[in-house]
Q: What sequence folds into this?
């Protein structure tokens, strides 16, 4: 059985120096009317279904709909998937637009995991750094529940999970950012988080000012582009407004 890939788009946003994500309607809004330097980005976690196992890459902004439902729960429901059915959650890093959906407040006001039966995979040094760093990029309340939970598997610099998902700590976008490569039979899917967030950044030399180490991110993209082309990877782009999945 092939891998089923479901992009879970939360919409298009602009983000500027204030680090606030502002919804952007591509049909009616004008980018140049936003503050100078505003970036246009998609927010797009991915669900991969592999032999009946539901795997989530990053968790979105954690926004709720007017009815109080967590948006990522709503998006999953549109595909017939319950939050209880998510088996694994892989986190590239803990910036608020990637980690906002890790937890939510129940109707009883209890802070709980958004995916109660899942194992959460996160770089341990990234967690420690995020807890210390805090605002504006990190919202500690989004992920502090991970600290002493039996649902967490801490990742280090490099390794594999059950032989089918390779991970490595890259740095670049933030000091302890991680990327993932899922390999199943003849298929390979690469999730680069914010080191490889958009197709255009993968195919051109681009140093992002918002990166912790923009030159390192650029070099990493060049490496992954070469490896991905030869390995026939499917790239999953978290922030690409037009193309969520691409093969080079």
A:
């Amino acid at each position: 059985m092939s891998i089923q890939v479901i992009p879970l788009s939360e919409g298009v946003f602009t983000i500027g120096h204030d680090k606030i994500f502002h919804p952007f309607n591509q049909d009616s809004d004008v980018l140049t009317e936003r503050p100078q330097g505003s970036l246009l980005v998609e927010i797009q976690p991915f669900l991969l279904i592999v032999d009946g196992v539901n795997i989530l890459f990053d968790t979105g902004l954690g926004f709720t709909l007017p009815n109080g439902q967590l948006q990522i729960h709503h998006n999953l429901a549109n595909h017939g998937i319950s939050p209880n059915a998510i088996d694994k959650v892989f986190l590239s890093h803990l910036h608020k637009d990637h980690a906002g959906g890790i937890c939510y407040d129940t109707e009883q006001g209890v802070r709980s995991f958004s995916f109660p039966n899942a194992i959460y995979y996160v770089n341990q040094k990234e967690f420690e750094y995020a807890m210390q760093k805090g605002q504006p990029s990190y919202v500690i309340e989004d992920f502090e529940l991970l600290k002493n939970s039996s649902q967490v598997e801490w990742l280090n610099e490099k390794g594999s999970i059950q032989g089918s998902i390779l991970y490595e700590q890259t740095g670049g976008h933030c000091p302890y950012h991680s990327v993932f490569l899922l390999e199943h039979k003849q298929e390979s899917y690469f999730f680069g988080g914010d080191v490889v967030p958009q197709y255009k950044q993968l195919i051109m030399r681009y140093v992002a000012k918002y990166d912790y180490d923009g030159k390192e991110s650029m070099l990493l993209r060049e490496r992954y582009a070469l490896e991905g082309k030869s390995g026939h990877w499917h790239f999953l782009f978290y922030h690409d407004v037009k193309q969520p999945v691409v093969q080079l």
Notes: The chain has one domain: 4-246. The first strand starts at residue 4 and ends at 7. The mean pLDDT is 95.
